Amino acid sequence: MAIPEEIRNVARPKNTIVVKRGNGPLQYAVVERVGCKRVGESNIPVNGYTVGHIIDGSFVAISDQVARRKTELKDYADVVLIDSVSRSLLDELYAVYAASDALKIYGMALLRVCYPGVPCSRLSHYYESSWVSILFPSLPLGRDTVSSFLQNLGKSYSLIVSFMRNRVNSLAGGQHHIAIDGTLKEDNSSVNSLSHYSRKARVKGTMDITVVFAYDVDLREPVCSKVFAGNVLDSVSYQRFLSENGLKQGIVMADKGFPKKAAQDAFAASQGLHWLNPIKRNDKRIASHDMYSFTGMLDDRNRDILFKKEKLEDCYLYAFYDRKRAAKEEADYFKHHKGKPFDAQHLSERDERFGTVVFESDVDTDPGVIYRMHDERWLIEECFRYYKNVADFDDTRVHSDYSGYGSEFVNFISSVMTSRIIRKFEETGLFCEMTYKDIMSKLASAKKVDVYGNGEWEFVRTTKATEKVLGRLGLVPKPEEPPKRKRGRPRKNPS
């Protein structure tokens, strides 16, 4: 169909023609002429790309569609903070994995810390909308790519073991206090052998996997981890965990699922590895050795802790009494027994146990070290809680055991990152004023924008409270405080 003359006469770029395509406002396309080709005895013009359209009697050049443009407003502060305390993990990954794989693992772990519970199918979206895409450009994190990568990551199991062993070997040369524990994580997948009914399945009605990892009380971060089926006994999983990861030194703090006999058998071959277990408050050894008759007080300005240490034939007992904890347990006792018949004998028996904890161990050390390990255990629980927050598996993650191993390895990297930013928050005193969730919320609100689309990113001003937090963390310069005025009227200059 011929192009109307009034359309052909509209001013447009040189070396272009007008082509009719369909109907509507974009029916008259302006196409560039890029040359010609010889066909027989004739020269045939060759058309190039569409450069614009004739709309309402004017030439309108083609611009990038907004759907195809890159994100120009990105989440900034949380990514930069986590990366600043975790970049050494990337060097550890480089020592085992190819550079492209190491960057992918690190980037995925970083995104899981910033956006807890993010499914693999959404990683690409959050990558583009966060500063991760600036720190590590061109990371392939599409749905199918991530699914395939986690499969291959789990298949390369020996590399995961090498990474964990490297971290364990880095502890050599000093006495490290290692706490080892495990957690059950819900996983109802019907296509992998890790999902099993655990000992708690009758109560929960769901299948689980078991995640065991070691936590360094001195470094205050996880050292290594391993995934087991949900029905594996603690004593079995811990022995396999220690042998696979090469843990041969330190004090291992387990729980009641890893009894003394199992610990002695597991550690018999490693002279530098010691065990520390809590015992029940009704254990007969507590009464027979009068462990509640405390003989000393820990040198701690913030807490009132009494202790007693007793040597037995095959181990040591360590008993502690925390005055604040005793007051809380006593208050809880009265709260739960209101409206019930008063039992003086029961209260007397419980009163002696309020605020107490007793451990058995094969190591002879300062009671203060033992209590510090017990006191730091809450950080292990924080790591477990994080693990469960990122357990939002979708169909790209758990099609097989391989995906489970691969995804849990990325989660381990994320848990180390989380421990390090928790330590940063404590060092800056932010935990005295806000919770972890509150601090991360303020960090998530701090963004950078490419105002003019030229790659020069500017910090988006936010609330004073948020900028104060960013300043304390070293993410923005601290605002200068105006000089304080002296009280009273200024002195007059004598004339």
Supply database-style keywords.
single chain; 495 residues; alpha+beta; 9-stranded mixed β-sheet; elongated
List the helices and strands and how they pair.
Blueprint: H1 5-8, E1 16-20, E2 28-39, E3 42-55, E4 58-61, E5 73-75, H2 77-94, H3 99-114, H4 123-128, H5 132-135, H6 143-155, H7 157-169, E6 177-186, H8 201-204, E7 208-216, E8 221-229, H9 234-245, E9 250-253, H10 260-267, E10 273-279, H11 284-288, E11 296-297, E12 305-311, E13 316-322, H12 323-336, H13 344-353, E14 356-361, H14 367-375, H15 377-389, H16 401-427, H17 436-444, E15 447-449, E16 458-459, H18 464-472
Parallel strand pairs: 6-9, 9-10
Antiparallel strand pairs: 1-2, 2-3, 3-4, 5-15, 6-7, 7-8, 10-14, 11-12, 12-13, 13-14, 15-16
Helix pairs in contact: 2-3, 2-16, 3-16, 6-16, 9-10, 15-16
Characterization of this structure:
By secondary structure, the protein is α+β, with helices and mostly antiparallel strands. It has three domains: 5-63, no CATH class; 71-173 and 394-484, no CATH class; 176-391, no CATH class. The protein contains 18 helices and 16 strands. It has helices at residues 5-8, 77-94, 99-114, 123-128, 132-135, 143-155, 157-169, 201-204, 234-245, 260-267, 284-288, 323-336, 344-353, 367-375, 377-389, 401-427, 436-444, 464-472, and strands at 16-20, 28-39, 42-55, 58-61, 73-75, 177-186, 208-216, 221-229, 250-253, 273-279, 296-297, 305-311, 316-322, 356-361, 447-449, 458-459. A nine-stranded mixed sheet has the order 8-7-6-9-10-14-13-12-11, with helices on both faces. Strands 1-2-3-4 form a four-stranded antiparallel sheet, with no helix packed on it. α2 (77-94) packs antiparallel against α3. The longest helix is centred in the last third of the chain and has 27 residues, at 401-427. It is elongated and about 110 Å long. It starts with a helix and ends in a 23-residue tail after the last helix. Residues 187-199 and 390-398 have low confidence and may be disordered.
